[in-house]
Amino acid sequence: MGNDNGQSMAINFWLHVGSNFTSGTxxxxxxxxxxxxxxxDNQTSFADSTDRTFFITGVQMEVGEQATPFEHRSFGEELAxxxxxxxxxxxxxxxxxLYAGAYTAHTTTALHGxxxxxxxxxxPTVGSFTTSQLSGMTTNTExxxxxxxxxxxxxxxxxxxxxxxxxxxxx
Length: 171
Prior knowledge:
Layout: H1 19-22, H2 75-83, E1 86-89, E2 96-97, E3 99-100, E4 109-115, E5 125-126, E6 131-132, E7 134-141, E8 145-152, E9 160-161, E10 165-168
């Protein structure tokens, strides 16, 4: 297996399969490369009842030949690790208002800053979003924040971002 971001291995949890995967002769405890031998034909379907549940926990995959102790992370820690790579800003679910004339009352400059919940791995790319009552939007991103600067259409207008904004710092 390669130590890179290419697919070197796949693990499947077969909850429901059709005859494309069960019509061959399946042998337990054997690696199969033929599609029709991947699942035994005596399996029941996960989807044939509304009373089914599927729980999975304690799976850890590692690069290398030596297994390490299982890492138990809290949900908050795992979320923060994920947010280093991708974060969506949508604080009120509908609209984020840019502050028209945030520093002086007689200007049409609108400013809005977004502090990221955790430091991102690199300065992110800002995803597409929609706006209202503004023009000339520029963004300045760093690993910990993004600043939006634009011109409101008129003094006192409510310049706003009208959709969620994503920040992507993937590899």
